[in-house]
Specification:
The protein has seven helices and no strands. The chain is mainly α. One of its GO terms (molecular function) is riboflavin transmembrane transporter activity.
C-alpha cells in the first residue's frame, strides 16, 4: 500500500509538470502554424522509464485532464485525442526497448523507435483525421490549410509537401529534443531509474 501510494503521488506530480510544460508552448519557424512545440514529453518519458508504461499513460492523461479542467478545449476534444495518441506512440516503444536491460543504449534505441513511431502516427492522424476535422469545424478547405502553412513556409504547396517538410520535421524536432534532454540527464537520473521499488 505504501509503495502504491508513492507511485501514484509521483505519477500525479509528473502529470502536473507535464501540464505546466505543455502550457509553455510556441510555434516553430517555417513549421505548420497549427502545431505548437512543448517539452511535456520529458516528464512523460521519465515517468515511463521510472514507473512503467501504465504510469506513463496516466501522466499523459493527467496532463490532459488538468488542461481540460483549466483551459477547456477549442477542438471538440480532437486536439486532446491527438496529443494522447502521439504521446502514447512516443513513450510506449521507448519503454519497450528500455525495460529489456535498463541501459543508456537501450534507452537511446527506445527513444529513437518512439520518435519514429510518433512521426508515423502524426502523419497519418493529421492527414486522415485531424486536418480534415479542423477543416470541417472551421469551414476551411484543404487548400486553405495548405495556404496557412505556405504563409510561413513558401515551399509547402501540396499535401505531400505539408507532410514531408511540415509534419515530419516538426515532430522530429519535438520528440528529438525531448529524447535528447532525457538521454543527457540519464547519468544523473540513473540511480532513480534503477530503483526497483518503483517498478
Amino acid at each position: 500500500m505504501k509503495f502504491t501510494a508513492r507511485k501514484l503521488v509521483l505519477t500525479a506530480i509528473l502529470g502536473a509538470i507535464a501540464y505546466l510544460l505543455m502550457m509553455f508552448k510556441f510555434p516553430l519557424p517555417f513549421m505548420p502554424p497549427f502545431m505548437d512545440f512543448d517539452l511535456a514529453g520529458v516528464p512523460e518519458l521519465i515517468g515511463t522509464f521510472l514507473l512503467g508504461p501504465v504510469s506513463g499513460l496516466m501522466i499523459v492523461l493527467i496532463k490532459l485532464l488538468i488542461k481540460l479542467a483549466t483551459v477547456g478545449t477549442s477542438s471538440m476534444f480532437t486536439g486532446e485525442i491527438q496529443n494522447f495518441l502521439l504521446s502514447a506512440s512516443f513513450i510506449l516503444p521507448s519503454w519497450f526497448f528500455y525495460q529489456r536491460s535498463n541501459t543508456k543504449q537501450q534507452a537511446f534505441l527506445g527513444m529513437l523507435a518512439g520518435t519514429i513511431s510518433a512521426i508515423v502516427v502524426a502523419c497519418l492522424s493529421n492527414i486522415y483525421f485531424i486536418i480534415p476535422f479542423y477543416a470541417t469545424l472551421y469551414g476551411l478547405s484543404m487548400d486553405a490549410i495548405i495556404a496557412m502553412t505556405q504563409a510561413v513556409n513558401p515551399f509547402v504547396d501540396s499535401v505531400g509537401k505539408l507532410v514531408i517538410i511540415g509534419i515530419v520535421p516538426f515532430n522530429l524536432i519535438k520528440f528529438g529534443v525531448c529524447s535528447s534532454i532525457v538521454y543527457l540527464s540519464m547519468d544523473r537520473l540513473r540511480a532513480i531509474f534503477l530503483r526497483r521499488e518503483f517498478s
